[in-house]
Amino acid sequence: MATNYDYEEAPANYDETHRQDLGYDPNFVPDSVKSFVGHLYRHIREKNVYEIHQMYEISFQTLSDRLFKDTPWPSVDAVAHYVDNDQVFCLLYREMWFRHLYARLSPTLKQRIDSWDNYCSLFQVVLHRVVNMQLPNQWLWDMVDEFVYQFQSFCQYRAKMKNKSEQEIALLRQYDQAWNVYGVLNYLQAFVEKSNIMQILEQEKEGLEQFTATDGYDYSGGSNVLKVLGYFSMVGLLRVHCLLGDYQTGLKCLLPIDISQQGVYTSVIGSHITTIYHYGFANLMLRRYVEAIREFNKILLYIYKTKQFHQKSPQYEQILKKNEQMYALLAICLSLCPQVKLVEETVNSQLREKYGEKMARMQRYDDEAFAIYDELFSYACPKFITPSAPSFEEPLVNYNQDAYRLQLKLFLYEVKQQQLLSGVRTFLKVYSTISLGKLANYMEVDEPTLRTILLTYKHKTHAVDSDGKIISNADVDFYIDDMIHVVESKPVKRYGDYFLRQVVKLEGVINDMDRIKLE
Amino acid sequence: MGRETPKQQQQQQQQVSYTVEQLVAVNPYNPDILPDLENYVNEQVSSQTYSLDANLCLLRLYQFEPERMSTQIVARILVKALMAMPAPDFSLCLFLIPERVQMEEQFKTLIVLSHYLETGRFRQFWDEAAKSRHIVEAVPGFEQAIQTYAIHVLSLTYQKIPRPVLAEAINIEGLSLDKFLEHQAANSGWILEKGHGRGQLIILPRNEFNHPELKKSAADSVPLEHITRIFPILG
Predict the structure, then answer these.
(1) Which residues share a beta bridge with A485?
(2) Domain that holds residue B68
(3) ipTM of the assembly?
(4) Residue B169: closest C-alpha in chain A
(5) Is the per-residue pLDDT at A17 higher than 80?
(6) Over the stretch A338-347, which tens digit does the pLDDT of each residue have?
(7) Do B96 and A244 touch (CB under 8 A)?
(8) Is B110 found in the same domain as B183?
(9) How close does chain B come to A196, measured CA to CA in Å?
(10) CATH of segment(s) A414-488
């Protein structure tokens, strides 16, 4: 089994005392930080989204790189003084504080629990109070993304019971509500419901609401926070369900978002990539290979064209990582469903470069092939989790790989079932008609076995789509009367969709230009 | 207390299923609905209905609280999923069932049955099913559902099919098969060609998969819904 699945986080061996050895004083607030929080607080109160975004994206990063490379930011208690002890700002600051900690250091169990508490407090405020803020989409996306990430991280951490200290186990038992799967899912669900986002998107189609057109921002004096968190929570739910192995429900959660169009999900590149990555992966596991190929192709082309603009951004590394993973998934999809004509030239040449040789070996379906399927799947798959709490009674073992092992096993099982299809394909490409007897001969099987192989081919290449209809994935197809008759399928170029997209895009550009006031 | 009439019972059942579906849609991440979902599985079995969403919801709850898992219910869910083929529901359910549970005898059998169906090995399937009557007979409608699936795959593949091939796929022979064929000919557009017994050929209804010329050029059709999006722009 490939070992590159092992979770990247280093074990959290150090505690408060160790960190203090690094010279970290949580109460020391450098001048630049005083200035930072002061300005950020003011911009939030003045609803100056552009300035908030600059400070959030750039200043926070710069200060982190300069002053807090391997220590946390000053504690919230120390900075509260400079922001009128504003409760909401402190919650937001703490959220950033923990995010920084997770990114640069390793959180202790107590810190994980505290972070959960902070999310609960912050989310309660947004859900139950009237929050009069406008925050940048980047920030709101990061909140949801980080929330799910910390949940995933906690499950991975908790499942490694073997080397847990008595103290850690006691804490885990005591705070069993922290990062509880019900809690996580219900918060995301609550955002979706309370924001009314599904109805908003529906009404937008009929022109009764404005949401996508304003990128989710509220130009009538209100707040975008709940609405946009509700929107991004749908992506959050897709992600959590994929981590659990429930691809069907995950896709259902994403349904209100039309991914054939631009939307708020494309306004932040991290959200765009996460959405399509999980959408594609879920479709792969649902055997809807053509759908997965189409979406991976689109996003990979998009990343190719736009990644240069994100080189300085803190998300750059993540973008590159997801890019590589999606190439691996695309290689898998195309090996199981060789519809190369669905892939854009640029993407195809990148794919050939990265995985050309491996794809050739995968399609041979020998033992080596399965090893490569294993390798690529393990590299590219989500970090599956076991959501249930451990039993503290049994001998303490590490079970953090169980969920991944199950998904991998079932995936390879599916690959194995498709083993004989490759052979059939080769022959079907060469003949226009052939008798069952002859083909059985060439494939060195008896006729009844050939019939089962042909039925398997038909079944595996005709998937059931989300509406229950049968759609053909087959690049080369056939039917049988007295003989096998081969049918070559033509590639489908969708000009209609392309024109529609361009019309909407042009309208968007014209609208943007109209909004510019010339002095 | 009077006995309810069947109609009243049916109405009540309909009320219960409506509520469960609502629960799954509105409040799925809630441990309290687990008993309702389990009852709903039993109801699906007895009334020959099916709900993938509700069953996935239950399997998720079992994932969250493994001590509450009922392997009997899980087995029933899997049998129902098998009956939903060609949809991949069986796999979707397996993704949510822990590996050690899947190692139990009854689940290994179900996985083997699924494997035979996925790879068109109908003869092996019916042989194995006969050996496991206790599992499959517990769910009414199982045989018919698999026969429907078998006919579906055959219809994707064959314009004309020899009688023995059909017989093996749907596990019906002799006089029963004659009756079955007559019924299909009368109601589903099957045509029984020349010959008796083994020599007989059955012509299956035409569809876009076994008659490629029927394939609609859906290539460039754009749904009206997409066009309505640009109506405001077109003015």
Answers:
(1) A433, A479
(2) 21-140
(3) 0.89
(4) A452
(5) no
(6) 988 899 999 9
(7) yes
(8) no
(9) 13
(10) 1.10.10
